[in-house]
Every structure is written in C-alpha cells, then in structure tokens.
Design brief:
The complex is a heterotrimer. By secondary structure, chain A is of the alpha/beta class. Chain A has a domain of about 130 residues: P-loop containing nucleotide triphosphate hydrolases (Rossmann fold). Chain A is built from 9 helices and 10 strands. In chain A, the strands form 2 sheets. In chain A, strands 6-7-8-3-9-10 form a 6-stranded mixed β-sheet, sandwiched between helices. A 4-stranded antiparallel β-sheet of chain A has the order 2-1-4-5, with helices on one face. Chain A is globular. The model of chain A has no long low-confidence stretch (mean pLDDT about 90). By secondary structure, chain B is an all-alpha fold. Chain B has one domain. Chain B is built from 14 helices and 4 strands. The longest helix of chain B has 27 residues. By secondary structure, chain C is mostly helical. Chain C has one domain: ABC transporter involved in vitamin B12 uptake, BtuC, CATH 1.10.3470. A two-stranded antiparallel sheet of chain C has the order 1-2. The mean pLDDT of chain C is about 85. The chains are: A alpha/beta, B mainly alpha, C mainly alpha. At the B-C interface, helix 4, helix 5, helix 11 and helix 13 of B face helix 4, helix 9 and helix 11 of C.
C-alpha cells in the first residue's frame, strides 16, 4: 500500500537446538492490516515477542520508521509508536477499565517524573481516555473493576489499553481469542474502521475474519515465512495449502 | 522477571481520608496538654516516628510491590549519621537531620541500582544482607560508633538563622517531630497520588503489562526505593534526636522484622495503616515487656498467627470489613 | 602486617574451605527447599542453631559424637516436618510472601525459645577424641577435626548428587523442581514430597550447626551471621541451583575467611560488595541458573 513502517531483516530466534524462527524478512506497510497465520508451533508468538522486544533475537534486525529497534527495551516502544496486546488477557486487575486505559495514556502523554502534580489534574489525559473508551464502546462499563467484566469485555479492554498509548502500529496477539460471535463482530468492525489511520499486525486463527479484513496475509510454518500476499493470492497458494494439510484449510 | 506476588490489598490502595487525618493529628497534638507526664509524650513520639518508618516501608510493599527485609538499614543510617555528626562534630540540628536523610537516600540509590532487577525473593534477601552488613560495620567499628555500648547524642538547638530554638523539653521536640512527620506524610501522599505513584501501582499489579505500556519498571522501582529509604532516614534521624542515644540493635534484622510487622499489621492498603500498626506494636511491646524479658516470643507468636490467619490483611482491613 | 609466608596462606585457604562447607550445607538445604516449594525458609538459621543445641544435648547424654551427628539432624528434620505441615502447607494457595513472613516470625519464636531454655550464655563442646589433635602436611599443622569437616562436606555433596541422579526419589525431586503440574498428573504425592524435601533441608542445616559447634561456641544468636552469608551464597549461586550453591559457597567461604583476617570490621562489606558486583552483571547468579519467583 504505502511506505513500509515496520520491517524485519532476516529475523530469527533459537532456543538451544530448536530454531523457532528462521530468517523472517517481512515488511508491514503503513495503514494496512497484515495478518500472520500459520499452524500451531509455527513460531508466530516468538516472532511477535521479538517485535515487541520481550525476547531478544538470535539473528537479524527489526526497524521501525527507519530506526533500528532490535535491542530497544520493551518499555521504550510505546513512546515511538508501537503497542501490543497479549494472547492471555493481561490487565491491571485491581483497577477499573478507565484506570487501566488511563495508565497507558498517561505513560505516553505525561513526560518526566511529575511527582508533585495530581493525576486528576491532567485534562488531556482524561480526554484521550474518553476517546478510546468511546471507540471501543466500553463507556458503559468504564468504572467497573476489570475483574468483574465478561471475558469478551476484558479482551476489548486489552485492546483499549494498547490504543491508549496512541500508537502508529498495533501488534495484536490473537485478539479474538475466547470472544463470542457478537463480540467478534464488534472487534472486527473496530479493526476495519481503524485501517488506514492505524497500522495493525495481527496473529489470528479465525480464517473467516482474516480473509475478510486483512489487506495482506503472511504465512509462517516451522519458523519460516512461506508466503506473503493478498488474501486471494494466499488462498490459492499451494505451499500454504500444503502447510495446512491436516489443520484448517484456508478456504 | 517478576516481583513477589503482591499481598492482597483488600481494598484498593487509598491515600488519605481527609477528616480522619485532621482528627488524628489534632488528637496527637493534644497529648502533651492532656497528660503532663513524659511517659505518654514519649510513647506518642515513638508511635509517630516508627509509624513514619513503617509507612515508608509500605511505599515499597503496598504501593510498589517490593518486599524489603532490611528496612532497618536506612532507619539506622539516619540514626547514626545524625548521631555521629552531632556527637563527634557538634553539628546543630538542621544540618545533622538533612545529612541523615541524604546519607540514607544515597545508600538506597546505590543498593537500589543493583537490586531492582532481581526477582522478588532475591530482592528481599539482598536487602536483608545489606542491612546486616551495615549492622555489622556499625557494631564492629566501636571506636567510631561505640559499638554495643551505644552512642550518646545530646540534642542540639535548632538554628535556622533567623530563629534559634532550644528544644530540650520532651513536649517541645514532640511538636517539631509531629510537624516534620506530617510534612513527610503529606509529601508522600502527594507523590503517590501523582502519575508517578499511579505508575508504581501499575508496576505492583502487573509489571509485565506496565512495561509494555511504556513504564520503565526498573527506574520506577528505584525511585520508590530511594523515596522509602530517604523517609526511613528521616524517621531515624528524628529518632536519635528524640532518644538521645543510638544503639546497633536498631539496625539488626529483628528491627527490620518489627517494622515489617507494624506495616502488615496495620494494613498495606493505605499510607496511614502502618501508623496504626506502629501504635499497636508500641503498646503491645510496652505491655508485654512488663510481664517478661522474653517479650519477643509472644510477639513472634502474634506475628505468626497474624500472618497465618489474616492472610496479609491488616487491622484496618478488618475494621473496614466489620463496619460493612 | 599481612604475612607473606606460604604456611599462613595455606591455613587460611583451609579455613576458607571449612567455612565453605558449613555454608554449603546450610545453603544446599535452602536451595533445595526453594527449588521445590518456591519458599525461602528464613528460620533456617534458627534450625542451624537448634541443631547445635540438640547435638550438644545428645553429646552430654551419651558422650558419643557420632550419635549426635545422626540424631540431631534427624530431630531437626522432624521439627522441619512439623513446620512444613502447620505453617507452610496451609499457605500454599496464598501469595508466597506471606510464607516468607511466617518463617521470619518463626525465627523470632525459635530464637527466644532457645534463649529461654538454655540462656544467653555460650556453651562450648569439644571435638571427640578420635577427631582431636592435629596433622602435619608439609610445613602446615592443621586440626584433624577441621579436615574431617571438609571431608564431610565433600561426602555430603557427593551423596546428594548421587541421590538426586541415581535414585527414583531423587529423580522425582529433580523433576518436581521444573514441572510441578506434570508430577501431580502422574500421581506423585506432591504433598508428601514437599514434606520430605523440607525435612531434608532442615537436616542439612542442623548438621552444619552441630559440625560447627566444636569450632565455634554455641549460643542462641549463632545462626544470625552465618545465615546472612548463606543468603548471599543462595543469591550468588542462583536460587534453586545446586551447582551454583556449591560454587558460591566456595567463593563466599574464602572471601569471608580471608576478609576476617585482613579487615575484620569490613569482611561482610567485602562479601556484600562482591555479591553486588556479580548481581549487576548476572542477576540470576554466577552461573545464570537462578530461578525466578515463579520457578522459571
């Protein structure tokens, strides 16, 4: 579509004898929704974890907006515009939805260590929190503690937190996991609406969803990138069909 | 890398109930007027100063999720820095106080840099080792510190340039201590209510998530550690001025255990809970030591029973639960 | 001031080895308990002290040192079982910090009880006749008892390794430290396992206390300083790592002993500084094998 925003160069990771990710070179274009698919154990989450800097690569590089981020600490990413969600819901369990999102907003919006200012005094923080809550349609439950929410709402909160960082690119690790049909539809509409303004990199198993909203699809198998392309191209790619033999076929 | 699973904050961490604070401070202010005997004033000073010490520990435990088994180190550094500067160099009160806080803060910074990256249990063990290192140094270096015999520290005047106060009376010093502790408490309160404080609590609840939304976990932990250490140093400096005497047992790990008990007993969900814990502890110690010289034994048993059956909930949490 | 002759240094190194053995026995107990139960037993130093007192009791009753060597660790192992059943086991579903606090409180109780029973004044016991006297190696004259202690340490370490590698129970213990859930599925009685491991750890520290007694004096606070060194060894070696414990025991033992000779006031400072430097570079211990709180 447009200029590449996030690029991996021969990115790889070994765990002892296991070569979990092998020389993956992938370009994510600005504004697109790129879905990563592949059978279980293909190395998708390991790949993701290298992008979000939760593990170090054994080989290769990652660049974001032209800047080498291969060795950046994880907490430096939101400031440069990268945010991620987790496969297992990972919230601040004692806090409300609003407070969860507020933490993410505050972490990128409030600079320095303002130990003397009250948290409530930051109008711009509250404004962005409200905006995010509106976009994900969680305003109704905003003041509930997250441990009282339904699983689907918790997954949405997970996404809301990531949005709170005001990112340019959103890394979504199986965001629809455990969601019911209505919630899934809601989330899909949300993603579709954000395309163009926000770049999204998405790991997902639900092939119907992937084929509907992805601009491009990348297929990983045994740690290797075996195909990248539009949904049509991937659907008819024989190596992709071979990889999925025995598991869900893409069509 | 994970911190020790946080203790259950039975209620969400709160900072101050305004009227409660006013009421308590007013009551404390009235103590010397109600009872002329030094006994109650001394008791009140102990509660106030040990309470600040315990509250500073709670900045670590209740708000940041870090457990320190060596918080006596910073209290003790305040005691001995201030004490030695007065006894050996004749400094007046204000610079000696400031120096006590400064030394404790710097020590917390140096130790903190190394340990904030450790897992929760390793962190706790190293804080313990550090405090015993300070204890052993103070204890063995008897030429400087007097070792087991202790150090006598006469209370110097408070010389602020424009005014000079000789606070020799117990009640006079008590009011100074009360004012300073109140200031420290309000400063901590403000700190914890700021975005930085919110980030600390995020670190406590879910360090991994905090990191992924952009919070520098190590740096925030270090900040909390230095703040806690400096505040403990202030409590210690005031303590030696109040007592007029410094002894190494204030640095021993059993002292760290006592302040830990005060904090947990009072409740880690608030900044003022530890003050209640300190009050209970001081009274309990008073009562028990009139019956036996082995008062550590029933104290230890109470400690065990409290943790075993209250599961980390403090007295404040119990009171609140009963009120419901 | 610092002597330059070989004999002096040889003796110091041997003394360092003795210290290493004492530390190793205590810390192996700590690290095994942590590896399986994910709990650090703060009362370990008190059990060390009780091992010495109980051993002294057996010695004064029977006059047989070897009997004390067998009985004291056994008695303390039983005490350990009692602690595990009443205080550790019921808290398994609670945050682990509470268990740590419990064992902290337990230290107060055990120490004061010892003070009540035996008073604060130190006792001394002598090495048995068959281990007393000195032996001459070259220019070095060294107490036989201390050689015995070093030998005992090596023997115990070897026995422990054999036990863990070659026996069924040992294999279960090794498996338990990496995968608790699988064991339960396999039908292993993890509850009984935890009890046994705690007993073993307690026995090891009690043995250390008894073995130390003829060299030092017996008094209620005798566990305090050495447990700090043990914690340093534990962190330096990496929590849960047996190999790390052995290496770290050696290191700390030597540094502590040499430091006590060269700069007695600051020996602990040196040990601590060394630990700090290592941790800066290797937060998971010397061999990078240390476990995090969740066992990983």
């Amino acid at each position: 579509m447009h200029a590449p925003l996030l690029v991996t160069h021969d990115l790889g990771r070994r765990f002892g004898g296991l070569h979990a990710v092998k020389r993956v070179s992938l370009e994510v274009h600005a504004g697109e929704l790129l879905a990563i698919i592949g059978p279980n154990g293909a190395g998708k989450t390991t790949f993701f974890n290298m992008l979000s800097r939760h593990i170090d690569p054994s080989e290769g590089r990652v660049t974001f907006a032209g800047r080498d981020i291969t060795r950046l600490p994880p907490h430096a990413l939101p400031a440069i515009g990268m945010a991620r969600t987790f496969q297992r819901t990972n919230l601040f369990w004692e806090l409300t939805v609003r407070e969860n999102v507020r933490l993410a907003v505050q972490a990128t919006m409030v600079g320095g260590y303002p130990v003397h200012r009250r948290l409530g005094a930051y109008g711009e923080v509250a404004a962005r929190v409200d905006d995010v809550l509106r976009r994900v349609d969680l305003e109704e439950h905003a003041n509930l503690p997250v441990n009282k929410l339904s699983h689907g709402d918790q997954r949405m909160t997970e996404i809301a937190i990531a949005l709170g960082s005001g990112p340019q690119i959103l890394l979504l690790d199986e965001p629809l996991a455990g969601m019911g049909p209505t919630e899934t539809e809601h989330a899909v509409r949300l993603f579709a609406g954000m395309k163009g303004n926000l770049t999204m990199l998405l790991i997902e198993h639900d092939m119907d969803v992937v084929l509907t909203i992805a601009d491009r699809i990348a297929v990983l198998n045994f740690g290797e990138l075996i195909a990248v392309g539009t949904p049509e191209a991937i659907k008819s790619d024989p190596s992709v069909q071979a990889a999925y033999l025995g598991a869900e076929p893409p069509c | 890398m994970m911190a020790i699973e946080s203790l259950p904050a039975a209620t969400r961490v709160r900072l101050r109930d305004g009227w409660l604070l006013v009421g308590v401070v007013a009551t404390l202010a009235l103590v010397p007027l109600i009872s002329p005997s030094r006994f109650y004033v001394n008791l009140a000073v102990e509660v106030v100063l040990l309470g600040l010490w315990a509250a500073s520990l709670n900045v670590l435990i209740g708000f940041t999720g870090l457990v320190s088994f060596g918080h006596a180190a910073f209290f003790g550094l305040g005691v001995y820095t201030t004490g030695l500067l007065i006894a050996k160099l004749g400094l007046s009160m204000a610079p000696a106080l400031l120096a006590g806080v400064a030394v404790a803060a710097v020590a917390a910074l140096l130790v903190g840099i190394v340990i904030v990256r450790l897992s929760g249990i390793a962190f706790a063990l190293v804080t313990l080792a550090f405090s015993m290192m300070v204890f052993t140094t103070v204890w063995r270096w008897s030429k400087l510190t007097g070792g087991d015999d202790g150090l006598t520290v006469s209370r110097p005047p408070l010389d602020l340039g424009f005014v000079r106060l000789d606070l020799q009376g117990a009640a006079q010093f008590y009011y100074l201590a009360l004012v300073l502790v109140l200031c420290a408490y309000l400063a901590l309160s403000r700190f914890l209510a700021s975005p930085v404080g919110a980030a600390l609590q995020a670190v406590r609840q879910n360090a991994v998530r905090a990191e992924s939304i952009g919070i520098d976990v190590h740096r925030h932990r270090l900040l909390a550690f230095v703040v806690a250490g400096a505040t403990a140093g202030l409590a210690g400096s005031l303590y030696v001025l109040f007592r007029g005497f410094a002894a190494p047992d204030l640095l021993h790990w059993s002292a760290s255990g006592q302040v830990l008990l005060m904090t947990i007993l009072g409740g880690i969900g608030t900044l003022y809970g530890p003050f209640l814990g300190a009050a209970v502890f001081v009274v309990l110690q008073e009562v028990l030591s009139t019956y036996t010289q082995y008062w550590m034994l029933p104290l230890g048993i109470i400690f065990i029973l409290a943790v075993r059956f209250m599961h980390g909930r403090g007295l404040l949490d119990l009171l609140r639960a009963m009120r419901r | 001031m610092i002597p330059g002759d070989v004999t002096f240094w040889a003796v110091q190194i041997l003394n360092g080895l003795v210290m290493s053995v004492l530390l190793m026995l205590i810390t192996l107990g700590l690290t095994i308990i942590f590896g399986i139960l994910l709990v650090v037993n703060f009362a370990h130093g008190s059990l060390y002290m009780w091992g010495a007192y109980v051993g002294m009791g057996v010695l004064s009753l029977t006059g047989q040192f070897w009997l004390a060597l067998l009985v004291a660790p056994l008695v303390i192992a039983i005490v350990g079982i009692g602690i595990e059943r009443t205080l550790i086991q019921p808290m398994r579903s609670q945050p682990v910090i509470l268990t740590l606090l419990l064992t902290f409180g337990l230290t107060l109780v055990l120490d004061e009880t010892a003070r009540i029973l035996w008073g604060s004044n130190p006792y001394s016991i002598n090495a048995p006749d068959w281990l007393s006297g000195t032996i001459r190696i070259g220019s070095v004259v060294y107490p036989i008892y201390r050689i015995f202690v070093i030998g005992l340490g090596i023997a115990v370490a070897l026995l422990l390794f054999l036990f863990l590698e070659k026996t069924d129970l040992g294999t279960v213990i090794r498996a338990a430290s990496s995968d608790r859930e699988t064991l339960e599925v396999m039908g292993v009685n993890t509850s009984r396992l935890f009890m046994l491991v705690f007993a073993l750890g307690s026995a090891l520290t009690a043995l250390s206390g008894l073995v130390a007694a003829p060299m030092l004096t017996i008094y209620p606070a005798m566990g305090h300083n050495i447990i700090i060194d043990a914690f340093v060894v534990l962190v330096l070696g990496g929590l849960g790592s047996l190999r790390g414990t052995i290496v770290a025991s050696f290191l700390v033992g030597q540094v502590q002993t040499l430091g006590a000779v060269v700069m007695p006031e600051f020996a602990l400072v040196v040990v601590f500084a060394m630990m700090g430097l290592v941790l800066l570079v290797r937060p998971r211990g010397l061999l990078n094998l240390g476990r995090l709180d969740d066992g990983h």
